[in-house]
Amino acid sequence: MEEKQINRWLRRRFTTVGWTLIAYYGIMNILVVLTMTLESLKGFLWSTAGHFPGHFDPDAVMNNAWGYILAILVGAVVLYAWKGGDYWRREIFARKKSMTTGVLLCLMCLCAGSQMVNSLWVSLLDGILNLFGRSVAGMLEGVSGSADSFSMFLYSGLLAPVAEEILFRGFVQRSLRPFGRRFAIFGSAFLFGLFHGNLLQTPYAFLVGLVLGYVAEEYSIPWSMGLHMFNNLILADFLSRILERLPQMAAAFLDLLIFGGLAGAAAVILAVKRREISAYRKGEWMDRRCLKCFFTNSGVLVLTVIMVVNMILLLLV
Fold first, then answer.
1. Alpha-helical segments (H) within the chain
2. DSSP track, 26-37
């Protein structure tokens, strides 16, 4: 098979992944807008009723996550109908190596360490934006860790970790696996980070995506779901609620103590395991042709453009 034919074949294989994510992103946004519109309409009707003045709450509209939840349900039904029940049992929920307590603690430290790295990135980004008279404060408020409604808590803490692992570590990573495990983990992590659509979360989601991809590949997707829930529920939601109730200095100290300590532990783990990590990395090489076709197929290119435009718009708002 000639080089051009191989490249065309690879792009066709990869483009399905990109367009599937675009379709899901479109459905999710349609349902989110629909549910927020209904919430706004309900609030407006209540606020204009003579017996319930001032009932309309804009925060209730912004924290309405039922559209995201509906998108998860629609996506699950479509994926099940497309791939079939056997695919879910054989691929998504297949059992692999047994997880040990030591490995699990190491992985938890790596997730927390990634969050510390992201804090440095946010500070750097804020410093750059300050030069142009802007700040990341608005974006930080929009992606804050703690959920302000039951639907948002249900989505961000429980349902999103399950759905995102099925989508990215299940469908995406499994679709890329025939071209190498390292390539599959990297590709799914890249798309996972990109899908978050903002400069504050994308780098962090990419780093955590590498950890979750490794867990799914070596230990099974249910374990990556559990680690994802730990990240969202404990590291983001629970700790954010605690820190919000403390004085600013105490909150900053506790935040540094927890995440700095866990980041230090993650650095030690990486140093101790460097030979094993190097051996794993060298165990399978990534074909440059696969990488080129992955980044240049129409699905991934269009998804990248959509998300980059979204990131720029969030900076300008």
1. 3-48, 58-62, 66-83, 85-87, 101-130, 137-142, 150-153, 160-164, 173-176, 181-195, 202-218, 221-229, 239-244, 248-272, 274-283, 288-296, 298-316
2. HHHHHHHHHHHH
Quick: pLDDT tens for 249-290.
998 899 889 988 988 999 999 899 899 888 888 887 788 899
d(CA 168, CA 162): 10
Number of residues assigned to the chain: 317
* Residue 54, phi-psi category: left (phi > 0), alpha (psi -120 to 50), beta (remainder): left
User: Could you identify the residue written with the tokens 């804009």?
Assistant: 58
Buried b (16+ CB within 10 A) or exposed e, 201-239: bbbbbbbbbbbbbbbbbbbbbbbbbbbbbbbbbebbbeb
pTM, 2 dp: 0.92
